[in-house]
Amino acid sequence: MAKQIFSTKQKHPLGKRRCAFCTSQIEEIDYKDVKTLKHFLNGFQKIKNRYYSGVCLQHQKQLARSVKRARHMALVPFTN
Known about the structure:
Layout: H1 20-23, H2 34-39, H3 50-53, H4 57-72
């Protein structure tokens, strides 16, 4: 198994971190897909920042809208 080389300024292996939704070619984020949405929430059920989640601006906006809809429909809790 090859070693992963990390840059001093980056926490991810060589190169830029890519948006998870862009790489899998997802155009619309579905609010009913709770498993995916929970990946982008922290321990206090707050939406992670783009810096930590690694998604692009367009998908971050869609993600926030989907999480808010899922909370309203009681699929995702507002808090713990």
